[in-house]
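Structure in, sequence out. Go:
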């Protein structure tokens, strides 16, 4: 039973690969450039580009299950090829943005919703994972923390429930290796709601030195997000992110017990994630 992991060099996909290997499952992974994938020994790495479904002909041979990275470009063609190649089951990495009440105006939610719909129409047995904010999103602050000991944060008092990328992967692996998850949609969060300011404080504690937070609101927040997301060229993306941040100030981020229910262990605290990744925030 070969399991194919797409997006295998990403934050979640790489952890899916490692956890499947640890469980003794036969793992195949795809990358646009297998020579630079740097995946663990024992992984069968093949070329594959989700923008080009035809590039997966070789990679899908003998595969029964797959972990699918959310790429709306070519997803329907890829899933048609997967079914024709003998794939029976897929686990889709989606996003909590799909369950946002305003998802119809949210380009992130719309993108993931389109991939979810393709998965559900594929004829394969499917399970959807909708993680909240990734703890690894905090890595965007690493250069500023290393260089200046200061971060500029749009709406620093906005709240998130950050989830460790390994916890998302652990749920995916449990679904791939056990029964009873068919047709399920799992909302995934970390164990606690916190402000972005608190995330920075926990990173500062992990590295043992203070980090100043500059709270950006209004036009200053928009300018920062334009710099961060403008290059993606997605209409409405900055407005959507800005609105989400502003709306969450003073409210608690949603929490679920899904990680614990599916894996049998509690999700990882952000403080522990920060300690685990502390070297990313320390100047060489």
């Amino acid at each position: 039973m070969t399991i194919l992991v797409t997006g295998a060099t990403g934050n979640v996909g790489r952890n899916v690969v490692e956890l499947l290997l640890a469980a003794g499952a036969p793992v195949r992974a795809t990358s646009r450039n297998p020579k630079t994938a740097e995946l663990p020994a024992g992984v069968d790495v093949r070329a594959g580009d989700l923008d080009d479904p035809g590039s997966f002909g070789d990679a899908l041979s003998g595969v029964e299950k797959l972990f699918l990275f959310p790429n709306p470009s070519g997803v329907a063609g890829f899933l048609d090829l997967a079914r024709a190649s003998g794939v029976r089951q897929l686990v889709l990495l989606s996003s909590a943005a799909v369950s946002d009440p305003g998802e119809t105006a949210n380009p992130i939610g719309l993108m993931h919703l389109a991939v979810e719909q393709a998965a559900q129409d594929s004829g394969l047995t499917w399970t959807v994972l909708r993680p909240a904010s990734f703890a690894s999103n905090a890595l965007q602050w690493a250069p500023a923390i290393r260089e200046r000991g200061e971060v500029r944060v749009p709406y620093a008092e906005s709240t998130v429930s950050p989830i460790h990328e390994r916890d998302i992967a652990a749920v995916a692996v449990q679904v791939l290796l056990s029964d009873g998850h068919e047709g399920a949609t799992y909302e995934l969060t970390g164990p606690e709601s916190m402000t972005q300011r608190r995330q920075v404080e926990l990173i500062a504690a992990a590295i043992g030195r203070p980090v100043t937070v500059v709270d950006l609101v209004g036009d200053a927040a928009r300018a920062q997000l334009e710099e961060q997301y403008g290059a993606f060229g997605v209409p409405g993306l900055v407005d959507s992110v800005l609105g989400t941040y502003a709306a969450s100030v003073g409210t608690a981020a949603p929490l679920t017990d899904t990680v614990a229910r599916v894996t049998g262990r509690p999700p990882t605290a952000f403080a522990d994630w920060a300690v685990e990744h502390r070297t990313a925030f320390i100047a060489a």
